[in-house]
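To assess whether ligand presence alters the predicted conformation, the chain was also submitted together with iron/sulfur cluster. Input:
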Amino acid sequence: MSQNLTNNLLVWYQKNGRELPWRTKGGAHFDSYAVWISEIMLQQTTVATVLTYFDKWMKRFPTIQALAKADLQDVLLTWQGMGYYTRARKIHECAKVLVEKYDGKIPKNRDELLKLPGIGPYSASSICCFAFNMPETVVDGNVMRVIARLYGITKEITAKDIYPLAEKLTSHKHGADYASAIMDLGATTCTPTSPKCAMCPWKSACVAYKKNIQESIPKIKKLEKKNVMGQVYLWQNDKGEYLIRQRTEKGLLHGLWEFPWHEGSLLKGKHPTITHVFTHFKLTLQIVQKKPPFDVKNGVWVKPKDFAKYPFSTLMKKVIKKI
Ligand code: SF4
């Protein structure tokens, strides 16, 4: 049965699959660099948003060599707006390693890929699949939904629960097309709400469809997010400039610019607030218009009209909007 399902999906894909600049129907994409960049961009960003950034990125850094030579500030500015900047820093670091140790080429080997900065198990599998047509199983949110519905899984699931079922359906000959196909089925047909089951190549085998329980599946286990509070300080001098600083410590926002802020319990009185959700926590900052009650290292005074010259995190862009 799984062979039939795989073949039906591959046929469906040839006619209905999406055209995306980092894919080639019928096999591996010709540019493994483009596959790598798109995969990292797509980790926490929607396809629609990535489409606009991807084009800009490839024009700015057309090759691994060009990226390796670029200034980090430039890389962060080109990434600006997509959030999760660690991805951009790791891409830059990885490009340098590729030039130094891999002759500027992306290795065609999962274990080698896993040694590179910013490439985890999911990205390594995706690159093997889309750039080299290997029969890797990739499980993202779309794949989880399609598989959970196909097998009528009503309990709470994680990607690990879905992996063995997804693996059985993976095509050994057409790794790239198959992975694209199941993702596209999830993105365009087996959508979270109102799935278009009448158009689905897996309709006759789908348990959720037979039981009419599609929309109640999947139930994805969610991580509890911690709530973090604090204050961000907008300190202005007589020239109308604001004090901003660059983050130097390693971590999520390394290298980006920000208004000085710190964690702490909420202050009394009325203050405008901004909130931002990171992968593992939710941050709420009160905006306070005064000198910060701590020393500001690496600070510079900048006029609001010059903010665009500095890569700010998405969190800080929310503060700028409030100014
Ligand atoms: S039949 Fe409907 S619910 Fe089942 S896989 Fe296809 S689109 Fe999804």
